[in-house]
Amino acid sequence: IAMIPVYHLLLTPRKPIVRDRFSRADSASLGNAETGQAWTAVNGTWGVASGAAKVSVSVVDNLAAIDSHLGNVRTSIEVKTTATANRGGVAWRVVDNSNHFWVRLNATSNLLTAYKRVAGVYTELGEIAFVMVALQSYRVEVLVIGNVHRVYVDSVLQLTMTDSDLSTATQQGIYDFGGVWSYDDFLVRAA
Prior knowledge:
By secondary structure, the chain is mostly beta strands.
């Protein structure tokens, strides 16, 4: 029996549990991912426009989620910025609008910030300077294993946090504040 080197196993991406490139026709809702799971607009009104997920009616803390049925996951999305400043990124361990984690790129203040909201109470978990360029896309990824949460942007580790709240939640999704950016190539893989 041939042995597979451990480094090969660690570097080989796992098959997506959820994948959505939003390549369907424009729609007033997000519909279903390519892998079959249904999107839920947790807060705000989300749709598909020009091959990407986008908020169509913005509220504070727009949130869309999809259930992977796993808590230890690697969730990522391509954030497509515009000339207009906005904030957006990935959500994980989503229960509802009052209980979830999220990380957002912030073009107004050039920050990358991670938060949690439990029982409606916001808590900042980590923040670093992150200079953004308008009209550029960024791949935002969160790896969660147990109570360790790691945030990457364009495959570079940016934040590491430890938190055990909402550990049984199995929904991941998209976070947006402002409604002007779009989101593409959403992936959830087992960690």
